[in-house]
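Exam revision sheet. Question 4 asks you to relate a sequence to its structure. Input first:
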Amino acid sequence: MSAKKDTNHRGRFVLLCVVAFLVATGASAVFKMTYTTPEMRKYSVEWSDEVGTKVADLSYGEGEANKFDLYLPADDSKENYGLVVYLHSGGFTTGDKSYDEPTLAWLCSKGYVACGINYTLFSEDNPESSVYAQSVEIREAMPYVVEAAEEAGYHIDKMAISGGSAGGCLALLYAYRDVEAWPVPLTVCFEAVGPSSFYPEDWTSYGFDQNPEAGVALFSLMAGKEIDPATLGTAAYDDAIRDISALLWVDEDTVPTVMAYGAYDTMQPYLGSVRLDAALTEAGVTHEYYVAEHSGHGLQNDTATCAAYMEAVERYLDEYLPVE
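Answer key, structure tokens:
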């Protein structure tokens, strides 16, 4: 067996182990376990005609998963509207835009055009999918989203992007990496537990700190290209992971960001979020970083921290994407 095939096989084995772990532990969208608490209930709205109109399964590409839903506010009298896109979770292998309807409905109830987008998930049927390929789909979807809103009579003049877990990763990439592709100005990003960097030493829960080659094999699949483990610790390695690592796109012009992470997260590296916070701080980027000190990936044991995060989200939306 060639070295390349061996690397690919080891990487797929690692990925399958990760997927199995996600399924076995029931990893799901952030806040699924906290929406029922009094502190979080106000951030979930039951959809109705009084909130707005939902237009489902609009196409943005040829792929089966290339669909998005628009949530249009009941008040259609404004000259301009802000768009908020929320990207679903699921470890890049599962999930659906419909799962986030309570969040999207809440955003719409505040006066935003809200949007949930599906992307092609990695699976045995879609082995060529990758985090990079998914991020490209999101980038390509945005002009279609803005155009659909315009056609419905809602002029979009600015936007925000958000998401949880895998969706948080994709949201960060769009906000930090894809600046030149924005169809309208993007003014704020908020996300929770989205992986932002891919250094094996941070992925301790998978043992990649002890076996960095296995980490590189997985990251190769996520990047959609082969990465040479011999480049670890060099600029060449950073170049190889740059397309999927929001961390490496941070600069003084990065948009204001609100983010939340669990200190005991075993799904994605908490240490990566520490790196991201440090990079944003060093670049002087306006941001808020919330750590759920007693929680894992679901942030389930820190309701007060989740509430503080959502209060910050509201503040940032009010400041950087005001409803006028």
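Marking note for examiners. The chain is about 35% helix and 15% strand.
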